[in-house]
Amino acid sequence: MSYELVWFKRDLRCQDHAALAQAARLGAVRCIYVVEPELWLQPDMALQHFEFVHESLKVLDADLRLQGGYVEIHQGELTEVLQRLWQEAPFHRLHSHEETGNGFTYSRDLKVAAWCQAHQVHWAEYPQFGVVRGLKNRNLWQGAWEKHMAAPMQHPVGLTFWKCPGLDLLRMQAPNHLQHNPSQRLRGGRALALATLHSFLNARSLGYRGGISSPLSAPNACSRISVYLAWGCISMREVVQQTYEYMEQLPPQASRHRAGLSAFVSRLYWHCHFIQKLESEPAIEWRNMHSGYDGLREHDFNQAHFEALKAGRTGWPMVDACVVMLRETGWLNFRMRAMLVSVAAYPLWLHWRPVGEWLATQFLDYEPGIHWSQLQMQSGTTGINTARVYNPIKQAQDHDPHGRFVRQWLPHMRTVPNTWLFEPWLMTPQLQADAGVQVGVEIAAPIVDLSLATKESKNRLHSRRQQPEVRAGKQGVVERHASRKKPIKRKSPLLKKSDSKEQLGFDF
């Protein structure tokens, strides 16, 4: 008996799963996940990603078992796995969600398409987010996003399963080379995704507006749903529709709560907007979005500065505390992510690609489409966005005025008086001794002079921007990637008004 082969990737759920639902309508389904060794060799992959996927697959497998099935775990190069399965038991259709991933998954999908064509297997791909494959005109994107989010969810019904006895199902061994698995990271699985969303809608979203910028309040005020969206434990459409259903139930006087949830949906819109950029132009993962910025930083890369940043030893307390929090939890709110990239791009003058590879391994919610678009935006290489240069001292003053965040993550700062909190390197050795700074801990000056280095970097960027050929190339980037967002009519079940700040795309 033939079967419908369903390939799970970054869509680790049963509910609102178009590939599984459509396959179930056609016959018995066989569900697989493939551990691809080469994927996990990529520089943007980390052990925390692997373990989160493993945790989520266990939950997915348990859900399928309740319905009489399971998910098979295979290992190897994708087309070799497909060839083996096809030879053992031929299938005529392969179902999966579309994936806007890294360069490896892009080239792998081309190989899968060629294999399917050669074996007369129909490969049906279904949209995962509000991202349009083959989009020819950016003016059409917003309407497509609205249509996708408003469509009925596709829950599989009447599932029957093709049985393959004898498989040791959930044996997944992480490759030995993989590193970085924060002890305080979020755990995987749909149940935790739903619990996180519901706690946000019911209570935590009250602090969304005004609470998402400070690293003190953001862990609670942000939805924290980004990682579950990135790995597909819950669908974007589910999140949007559940948010609006909850908003409809709020009493008229709950204006602040409603405004926070409206802002949240706005950021979900920007989430897909950024992924569409990588979908439309995969090369922006490794190439400047605007070619006029080629060579701006690439040849001046200072490895010592990069190592200091990764180690949390730049000398700016807010920066170093953010690096430590990210290292220990796998998460950081958007304002602080933007500050890290800004510090890397301007005073440290580091090219965005190596910085982006490192940050990808640190972010448990790494989503390639958002990640590389934002790296370029914050580094000033898109050619269409205002340079966003975050002063780490001012960010500390604005978002951690009493030093609670810095002292939480940097033990040597716990005895530094408030007077010296933002620039502790100005303390003399005697002042440090009087304050009880830990013996043997040197509060060193920042690795560069912030004012001078920032001024020089901005001058270099603006000088490049003024070149005629760079200015002339801007329009092409606008046509390919700029937002065309217009206010959405209230009769739509979606957004009421526009949020023009594209830089908020990471903040969930």
- Order of strands across the main sheet: 3-2-1-4-5
Gap between N and C termini: 45 Å
Q: How would a crystallographer describe the biggest sheet? A: 5 strands, parallel
Order of secondary-structure elements: EHEHEHEHEHHHHHHHHHHHHHHHHH
Notes on the protein architecture:
The structure is a single chain. The chain is mainly alpha-helical. The protein is built from 21 helices and five strands. Helix 1 links the parallel strand 1 and strand 2 (29-35). Helix 9 (236-249) runs antiparallel to helix 10 (255-280) and helix 10 (255-280) packs across helix 15. The model is unreliable at 488-505 (pLDDT under 50).
Question: Which labels suit this protein?
Answer:
single chain, 508 residues, mainly alpha, 21 helices
Describe what is shown at a glance:
The chain is mainly alpha-helical and 508 residues long. The protein has 21 helices and five strands.
How are the secondary structure elements laid out?
Elements: E1 4-8, H1 18-26, E2 29-35, H2 47-65, E3 71-75, H3 78-88, E4 93-97, H4 103-118, E5 122-126, H5 141-150, H6 190-202, H7 218-221, H8 226-230, H9 236-249, H10 255-280, H11 303-311, H12 317-329, H13 334-345, H14 352-362, H15 368-379, H16 392-399, H17 404-409, H18 429-435, H19 450-465, H20 468-472, H21 474-481
Parallel strand pairs: 1-2, 1-4, 2-3, 4-5
Helix pairs in contact: 3-4, 9-10, 10-15, 13-15, 14-15
